[in-house]
């Protein structure tokens, strides 16, 4: 069973397609990693899955319902999104940033109660950053901001978590902790779609992999069959020998 299915979908802006004929599915309770070179359309695809951008053609089903027929608030009750770490013109405490993840479930203008604050603290504890609760979001490092955005998504208790390069700003230790957390979320029944520039991360945790590029469009398959030297070399326009020489990963990526 899949939580989301794409049928002959074209994505892009202003009625101009970047990639068309996309046929994919996100199997329930599995981790799917999305790989592709810069500018290939990964973020555009994610925004389309979130209902923030309309598909130029084709159909996207969320739990068997056309996403185009759903209100944004209803989509947000099922899907949580973790963007890349960003700055905000407003100054919020970290705890308040996390509580904002409850917006789909509570009134926009309601005052957070102790129950909501407790939930926010639990998510910060889960990510080993409870000490950040009173800090201003704008004063955090890029990696700390990323972890706060993840906590904000997790408090929604989504069925599907979409993450746009969540490890981009994290140091090595936090990358490992993030991957471990993602695996725990899967074990608790969550479905995860994560874009990444690290094939090593996909090899470590992904059940399924989507390779996205404008020439070959979208290809999906099991992690082991997709993460080959041949596929990665073609995807990133480098030769196989360079991948082996610089990353020394022949035990992970093989033909």
Descriptive labels:
alpha/beta, 255 residues, 6-stranded mixed sheet, 25% strand, Rossmann fold, 4-stranded antiparallel sheet, single chain
Q: So how many helices?
A: 10
CATH superfamily of the largest domain: P-loop containing nucleotide triphosphate hydrolases
Structurally, the number of domains stands at 2
DSSP E strands, number: 10
Classify the beta-strand content into a percent band: 15-25%
Question: Topology as H/E string?
Answer: EEEHEEHEHHHEHEHEEHHH
The low-confidence parts are: none
State mean pLDDT (0 to 100 scale).
Answer: 89
Characterize this entry briefly.
This protein has helices at residues 42-49, 72-76, 94-99, 114-126, 142-154, 172-187, 199-205, 223-226, 229-236, 240-247; strands spanning 2-13, 16-27, 31-35, 57-62, 65-66, 79-82, 160-164, 191-195, 208-213, 217-222. With 255 residues, it is of the alpha/beta class. The strands form two sheets. A six-stranded mixed beta sheet has the order 6-7-8-3-9-10, sandwiched between helices. The chain has a four-stranded antiparallel beta sheet with strand order 2-1-4-5, covered by helices on one side.
General description of the model:
There is one protein chain. With 255 residues, the chain is an alpha/beta fold. It contains ten helices and ten strands. It has helices at 42-49, 72-76, 94-99, 114-126, 142-154, 172-187, 199-205, 223-226, 229-236, 240-247; strands spanning 2-13, 16-27, 31-35, 57-62, 65-66, 79-82, 160-164, 191-195, 208-213, 217-222. A hairpin with a 2-residue loop joins strand 4 and strand 5. Helix 4 (114-126) packs across helix 5. The longest helix is centred in the last third of the chain and has 16 residues, at 172-187.
